[in-house]
Amino acid sequence: MSSSASPRPFVYDGDRLVCSGVDVAALADEFGTPLYVYSADAVRERVAMIANGFAGVDHTICYAVKANSALGLLKRLGALGCGFDIVSGGELERVRRAAPEAVSRVVFSGVGKQAWEMDAALEAGILQFNVESEAELELLAERAQALGKTARVALRVNPDVFAETHPYISTGMSEHKFGIAIARARQVYARAAQLEGIEPTGVSVHIGSQIRSVEPFAAALQRVRELVEELRKDGINLRNVDAGGGFGIEYGTAAFDPAASVQQYAKALRSVLEGFDAHLLLEPGRFIIAQAGALVTRVLYTKQNGAKRFVIADAAMNDLIRPALYKAHHEIVPVLLDASRPASKADIVGPVCESGDFFAQDRETAELRSGDLVALLDAGAYGMSLASHYNTRVHPAEVLIEDGKTVLIRRRETLDDLFVAELY
Ligand SMILES: *Cc1c(COP(=O)(O)O)cnc(C)c1O
After folding, report:
1. Ligand 1, pocket-test mutation among 69, 165, 209, 385, most atoms within 8 A of CB
2. Per residue in 366-418, pLDDT tens?
């Protein structure tokens, strides 16, 4: 199978949708719906594409756990040699359980780290804290001193670079809450270098998510390089240059060659880093897992309200919130092709009591009928990790297809699971 054929592991075998060779309808029958289906093979391929792009560059891929934090996924990424970018003590605990050997490759990002989270990360011995404010730096120094540890620190700088993406996932401009203004960074590094318990080891930048052009990444990294060079003159020697995540994918039907596009991304970063001695950290999330996954759902009902046709699925915004939150587009494809079906336009919606609970509006597909299975493609990233229990709905099950075998990595929740923390 060549990577140019499809950027997704979900393809048709005759009239049946398969995921890395495994029949999707059979999975739905066995595990029920809604069901998240992922291909471990596709994940492995994406990691290899990145590693290829940066071959010869001293680098570590720190997968961004928030994109999809399934333990079964983290375990496999850890085994591939990946590190992790975490944003909470909860995510640290996930890495500790699923990939304990990778804890030394963890970077800890986030604007609101709490003392207990710092303590846990200091005890675990993570690679680096990506510090986002001076106040955080002071608290981290205090915690490190209290525990007799040293916190390796990068400042997350805000490079004030514009990256074209959805406003909710753009982070690299001065109006955003993220990072420390790059103009102030030298001053803050000088303070960090004085603080007991703090060892400045790197600098980090992350300009946003689902960014499709490589120029903003290169522009941000160029500013970071200049900063590191200045700091080295000041006698502060930083080794880790963390370029962040955010590299995007194609959610629609336009041609997309992930291997070629990651090569372009790598080329742009490599040209900025030429002649520069540093350890590059990368924090991809979406690029690795989005297209490896789909949300499989069954049509419950269809109905006509005036001029509009509605297809009501058993999955909802609580399972996959991207369309409701960002008006994000997901391709929606039938699990079984039926050439006799006429084309039909409909809103594909879930059962949740919100008008925002839609997966697509006025979408043309082969007519969908009650009982049909459909797959929402590219749902591997920011799907399950953003799922909620809204409307007292249980989380879907998750299965991973690996070397032709099906592995259940999360059973469907029961209602009892939902009530365990409640008192009455
Ligand atoms: C969300 C996030 C990432 C991952 O972003 P993707 O778009 O999924 O690649 C990486 N680093 C940081 C700091 C983030 O907040």
Report:
1. 209
2. 999 999 999 999 999 999 999 999 999 999 999 999 999 999 999 999 999 99
The reply, when asked if residue 202 is annotated as ligand binding, is no
Query: Residue with the nearest Cα to atom 3 of ligand 1?
Result: 245
CA–CA distance, 215 with 340 (Å, rounded to integer):
46
Residue pair 71/409 in contact (Cβ under 8 Å)? The answer is yes
214 Cα–ligand 1 center, Å: 15
260 φ, ψ (degrees, to nearest 5): -65, -40
Distance 218 CA to ligand 1 centre (A): 16
Structure-token match 């069954």, residue found: 298
pLDDT tens digit sequence for 256-289: 999 999 999 999 999 999 999 999 999 999 999 9
Cβ-contact 169, 326 below 8 angstroms: yes
Judged by DSSP in three states, 145 sits in helix
Backbone angles phi, psi at 16, to 5 degrees: -115, 130
DSSP state of 412: P
Question: Is position 353 annotated as part of the catalytic site?
Answer: yes
Place of tokens 């879907």: 396
Give the 3-state secondary structure of residue 76.
helix
What pLDDT is stored for residue 1 in this prediction? 41
CA separation, residue 67 to residues 1, 165, 340, 375 (Å): 26, 17, 38, 19
**Which residue in the block uniquely carries the two structure tokens 């093979």?**
41
The string of pLDDT tens digits covering residues 31-44 is 999 999 999 999 99
Output the six-digit token pair for 266: 């790598």
Instruction: State pTM to two decimals.
Output: 0.96
Give, as one character, the DSSP assignment of residue 353.
S
- Residues forming beta bridges with residue 398, ordered by sequence position: 36, 410
Q: Give the distance (Å) from ligand 1 centre to CA of residue 33.
A: 29
HSE toward the beta carbon, residue 122, CA cutoff 13 A = 24
Confidence of residue 164 (pLDDT cuts 50, 70, 90): confident
Question: Is residue 413 left, alpha or beta, with left meaning phi > 0 and alpha meaning psi from -120 to 50?
Answer: beta
What domains are there in the chain, each with its CATH number? 3-32+292-418 (2.40.37.10), 40-286 (3.20.20.10)
| Ligand 1 first shell, C-beta below 6 A | 64, 66-67, 85, 109, 206, 209-210, 244-247, 283-287, 381
